[in-house]
């Protein structure tokens, strides 16, 4: 069989496949035209979803998941954002972060050669109060985003946040950021 005969045979086969597909499409098209109503995609979707039967028609009779009340720390019993934060970030979690951060810093300083001029030599163990400030700064950085870390401590009016400058020095923040561990 020559190349031309094979090519011609394949061409005939592919034309018959296309013709068959066209016939199928026409019959689908004719079936949809024979109906008096026009069916939209939304109606088809709703019909499909209506066919799905729920396993149970019972209503929920109890609360599921985490059900805890956030307690207010203010005198007027209103729940402030800090109350929600402290509900999840408890004193125990802060204690753990302080302990692990101090432990990691100590291990790092003992196992690495630190030059005399290294910032790491300024390390002093952190406290719970300082860790809360550290996370406060991180949250503020998430709310007020700046292109560079140093801009948060800038004294310019365009950049810089006084609340961050007064809470902690940039050098101390960077040290805590380096050694923070959980």
UniProtKB/TrEMBL annotation:
Residues 80-181 form the PiggyBac transposable element-derived protein domain. Residues 1-10, 33-45 have a biased composition (Acidic residues). InterPro entries: PGBD. It comes from the Eukaryota. Residues 1-47 are annotated as: Disordered. Transmembrane segments: none annotated. This is PiggyBac transposable element-derived protein domain-containing protein. It comes from Didymodactylos carnosus. The lineage of its organism: Eukaryota, Metazoa, Spiralia, Gnathifera, Rotifera.
């Amino acid at each position: 069989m020559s190349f031309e005969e094979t090519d011609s045979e394949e061409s005939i086969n592919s034309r018959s496949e296309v013709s068959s597909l066209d016939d199928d499409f026409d019959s689908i098209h004719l079936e949809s035209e024979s109906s008096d109503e026009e069916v939209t995609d939304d109606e088809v979707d709703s019909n499909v979803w209506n066919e799905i039967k729920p396993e149970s028609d019972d209503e929920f009779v109890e609360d599921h998941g985490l059900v805890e009340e956030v307690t207010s720390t203010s005198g007027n019993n209103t729940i402030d954002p800090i109350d929600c934060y402290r509900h999840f970030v408890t004193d125990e979690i802060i204690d753990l972060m302080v302990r692990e951060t101090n432990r990691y810093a100590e291990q790092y300083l003992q196992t690495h050669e630190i030059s005399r001029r290294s910032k790491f030599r300024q390390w002093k163990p952190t406290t719970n109060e300082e860790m809360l400030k550290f996370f406060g700064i991180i949250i503020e950085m998430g709310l007020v985003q700046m292109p560079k870390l140093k801009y948060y401590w800038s004294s310019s009016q365009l950049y810089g946040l006084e609340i961050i400058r007064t809470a902690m020095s940039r050098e101390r923040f960077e040290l805590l950021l380096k050694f923070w561990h959980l």
